[in-house]
Amino acid sequence: IDYTGTDPSSPCNKCLSPNETPCVCTINFTLEQSFEGNVFMYYGLSNFYQNHRRYVKSRDDSQLNGDPSALLNPSKECEPYRRNEDKPIAPCGAIANSMFNDTLELFLVGNESDPTPIILKKKGIAWWTDKNVKFRNPPGGDIPLEERFKGTTKPVNWVKPVYMLDSDQDNNGFINEDFIVWMRTAALPTFRKLYRLIERTNDLHPTLPAGRYYLNITYNYPVHSFDGRKRMILSTISWMGGKNPFLGIAYIAIGSISFLLGVVLLVINHKYRNSSNTADITI
Amino acid sequence: MYPGAVDELQETVYDQWFITLFNIVYTSLPVLAMGIFDQDVSDQNSMDCPQLYRPGQLNLLFNKHKFFICVAHGIYTSLALFFIPYGAFYNVAGEDGQHIADYQSFAVTMATSLVIVVSVQIALDTSYWTVINHVFIWGSIATYFLILFTTHSNGIFGIFPNQFPFVGNARHSLTQKCIWLVILLTTVASFMPVVAYRFLKVDLFPTLSDQIRQWQKAQKKARPRHSRKPQTRRSSSRRSGYAFAHQEGYGELITSGKNMRANNPPPTSGLEKTPANSTSWIENLYKKTTDTVISFSQDKTVKL
């Protein structure tokens, strides 16, 4: 569901140049079929080059690993997002600075008048190794997170500082899962990143029954300046991952070419063998 | 890389360590082993047929034409190696729904496909397998995976966080079945044209070394059939084993003088330079080889 809002008839058009911040818009959509099992909610961005060399280099992994010296003295790769108002930025770099900050909420419009909000789980979206090994908050044990980040300032484009990303202390600071997912830079300019999980309730009821829904968007992230697009994607997962027709089509194509080639070569080999004896050598 | 396809994809696709180690560790040893140990025909047949050396002398094996074919093959392989993972990663999610289309997983997929394609290519090219060839080729692949998992491990990240940012990547992406399917597809797509081309060439336009190789194979198949004969006539062959001149065939050969050519000098001295120009020397060699082959083949038929 594209919610960029460039089309004047789109509900999110008013958010392109907002009069008030934050701007909230709502998009209605209908699910034709019910979704069973675990459902995954992604946000997708287009024309966003997370693979640009300068962009990818603009991070400090020691700082993100909680190294106290790197916290106060981030690496030079982060320029120009290294220091602000004479204080080091935590987390530094262009990748962190451009973090996606839209909030998406999903509601099911039932037969009753009250729409039911769908429970969205925000933990378990990042890789285990990322959350537990690569990204660590600065050490401190019992000291509250705000104290541990003392002497640093928030990135330029952020509203809240890093130690206020979530009230849950296991998801705050550098180990905030949304932050971790964002920092794992995508390979291609059109990508999707996992936003929330919708866990299946029980086997009797589908996780997302067919019907009308609406998506409540807190539109913070500006993409129209570079002709980018934003989407929300709901998907279920099979044994091989998400829906990906390319691999199937490619396999069928290469398989049929191989088969044809095998047949052709068999015919040629058969003909050649009949024409001359392989033991003859023409010197 | 490929700026036309993905505008401003300016980042190096591969891990820095992979680039460094690729030429040194992963691919040098198999090529070295092939250069030293490979043998397209057996040594005996190489001596029997000096024509085999003719393509080398005439620069037929490494000239501009062959070079451009190599370059074209390289371009095709690199296109396959990039675009197949590109298409596969375009709109994909991992097995737990988690993000796998990130730049590092893409790099790991491409790097693994590359190492496997290169090793398979060398394996196809090797026509004479020794233990060392096996060790070098499969060892290179094993070394690649070993180093991959080491550079992506938690331990080494703890020591040098800035040098090894790929932590956890190998474990995460290589446990996805989707990635292995992509690697398999890329490998097959890369060497399928090569296999087809080679096969057609050997069948329709065989070179001298191809023909001799096939003759060798036919000989090997023929030998087990003929080896039954000595078994049935063991007593007679044992007796004549020490003095084979007693066998009927040899006597006739010697008395007829067919294996002694008084008018032509023996083959070994033909390697001296004659006063005539080099082409006539080659022609002489040509003639001698014809005779030598016939005489040797006669010997062989008798021994069988």
From TrEMBL, chain A:
Keyword list, A-Z: Cell membrane, Cytoplasmic vesicle, Disulfide bond, Glycoprotein, Golgi apparatus, Lipid transport, Membrane, Transmembrane, Transmembrane helix, Transport
Keyword Transcription regulation belongs to the record: no
One Pfam family named in its UniProt record: CDC50
Record membrane topology: Multi-pass membrane protein
GO biological process: phospholipid translocation
Region entry Disordered, spans: 59-82
CC per GO annotation: apical plasma membrane; endoplasmic reticulum; Golgi apparatus; transport vesicle membrane
Parts of the chain that traverse the membrane: 246-268
Cellular compartment(s): Apical cell membrane; Cytoplasmic vesicle, Secretory vesicle membrane; Golgi apparatus; Membrane
Database matches in InterPro entries: CDC50/LEM3_fam
Family membership: Belongs to the CDC50/LEM3 family.
Protein name as catalogued: Cell cycle control protein 50A
Source organism per UniProt: Camelus dromedarius (Dromedary)
From TrEMBL, chain B:
Domain of life: Eukaryota
A molecular function (GO) term: metal ion binding
Keyword Metal-binding attributed: yes
Transmembrane segments: 17-37, 67-86, 106-124, 136-159, 179-200
Taxonomic lineage from the root: Eukaryota, Metazoa, Chordata, Craniata, Vertebrata
Biased composition (Basic residues): 218-237
Protein's UniProt name: Putative phospholipid-transporting ATPase IM
Membrane topology, record value: Multi-pass membrane protein
